[in-house]
Amino acid sequence: MLPDLTVPSSLAVLLADFRPCFTAPTFQVFRALVCGMLAATGRRTVCGMLVGAGLSRVWPHDRAHRFFAGAVWSGDEVGLVLARLVVRLLVPSGAPVTVAVDDTLFHRRGKKVWAAGWFHDGSAPDARQIGHGNNWVICGIVVTVPMLDRPVCLPVLARLVCKGTTSASRLWLAARMVEKLAATLPGRTVHAVGDAAYAGDELRTLPTSVTWTTRLRKDAALFRLAPPRTGRRGRPRKKGDRLGSLAQLAAGTAFTPVTVTRYGRTAVVHAATVHCLWYGVFAARPVTVVLVRDTPDRTGTYDLALVTTDTLTKPAQIIGRYAARWSMEVAIADAKQIFGVGQARNRAKAAVERTVPFGLTCQTLTTVWYALAGHHADDATDHHTRAPWYTTKTRPSTADMATKLRRVLIAAKYQLTRPEPPTPAEIHTLRLAWDTDAA
Fold first, then answer.
1. Is the separation of the CB atoms in 158 and 139 below 8 Å?
2. Distance between CA atoms of 11 and 7, rounded to whole angstroms?
3. What is the pTM of this model?
4. Number of domains in the chain
């Protein structure tokens, strides 16, 4: 089996936070499968995790499958522990927590795969843009780390979309996950951000510690704030007069230049704000509409319309916050292409609901590990030496982080715990691991 001694202490200290989520035997399997998934060089199926951990000849594969399909543990509980870990280590004390939400499709085949169906797939090659598989709503914490010049989204919670149930609504799932995060991070303001699909009356029950920022639909019905009470008999008005369309607001509102940092660049754009109600979504909770114009010569038009319940923050920060949502798209691409999330071929309900969140947990742990212990100033230089065509590379990529942790895990398996020297097969395996280049 994989002894505790062979798990690097820099990773073991992070995994120790998850001990209360499992029984003692299940926690041992959890540690082994995390190391196996991160050290695997092939497909990250359940058996592939065993191979990556070096346990394929020691443990029966049923033990790993049982961890996902039958063991007593909660994916939400693991995700909340992970969220507290990320906030404690990577978010400044007392600072607000930015949370990005989005959904993605993991392709699956077979009639017996739990909750599989036909969903929207933006990467589909045909015009219909649909695909068959499991649709997941993912919630991640957006952080900045010193060695990178871009925001990084660290997935912490994921919920499976199940048609025919309350979990069929992606917005409902996203709102419930954000509520859980707010409850597990008392004293912190949570700024949630999503695209235009994440706006609806499910957001009316959000706690006051949560703000929500999204892209405003063109047909949104906006109203002035509720007028003061008149003193007359009858129910007071809950909303004021209806405002015009977004095009009319853009034509009648003054735009001012603001400096924003988005997508790794700092630029000057023109923004206008309107304080109002989006009653159909947020009911009586006041919102701020931010209209963005990239060039000053387009009078009476706008390029982007945002709406937020954070009415105290300046427009430049709202624009930057929405732009940081793109880090979730990058995280989803990394999950599929680098970490192999979704490659497990489970079919049972519990197993399907656990393997993707488990893989996302491994992805987040990799970034946290690298930020705390794995980074070295020469990492980007070393990559440039091996791949000199990357002439502009100055920062480590997610693939660099995953490769370095894989090397550390494989090297730890061959540290001298017995007087015998390593076998030629072990030396060959270690050499192959060190020869693996990150993309």
1. yes
2. 7
3. 0.90
4. 1
